[in-house]
From TrEMBL:
DUF7344 domain sequence ranges: 24-98
Gene3D superfamilies xrefs: Winged helix-like DNA-binding domain superfamily/Winged helix DNA-binding domain
Alphabetical list of Pfam families matching this protein: DUF7344
Secretion signal, residue range per the UniProt entry: none
Coiled-coil portions: none
Species annotation: Halorussus caseinilyticus
Domain of life according to the entry: Archaea
Protein name: DUF7344 domain-containing protein
Length: 119
């Protein structure tokens, strides 16, 4: 699991190396899809707590009940997978995550996922 602040092309997979199958695999999980969607709509980094709050609200759960579970799943599963794919920089010590150069590469896939959710 890569959780440092190095660029995505120096370790792990470069964003341009991701196949459509890889990208759809990242977006297949609702929490990863929503985290990427949220990160793509902001400038700079977000805290893991902010993402957990957004996900808890989106899932319709009471914040206090689900936030810790969601934060744990982000920390141990989803963010490391996105980091290993080279699409985010995740600093576990600071609790921040930032979309890297993947914004343009992921945009068409995120739009498809958004359109599918509206159906």
């Amino acid at each position: 699991m890569r959780t440092d602040t190095t660029e995505s092309t120096t370790q792990g997979t470069a964003v341009t190396d991701l196949s459509p199958t890889d990208i759809f695999g990242l977006l297949a999980d609702d929490r990863r899809w929503y985290a990427l969607r949220s990160l793509s709509r902001r400038v700079g980094s977000a805290s893991v707590d902010e993402l957990a709050d957004e996900l808890a609200l989106r899932e319709g759960a009471r914040l206090s009940e689900r936030r810790d579970r969601i934060r744990t799943s982000l920390h141990h599963h989803h963010l490391p997978r996105l980091c290993d794919a080279g699409v985010v920089r995740y600093d576990a010590e600071r609790g921040t995550v930032e979309l890297l150069d993947a914004r343009d590469r992921l945009a068409p896939y995120l739009e498809l996922a958004d359109a599918d959710e509206l159906r």
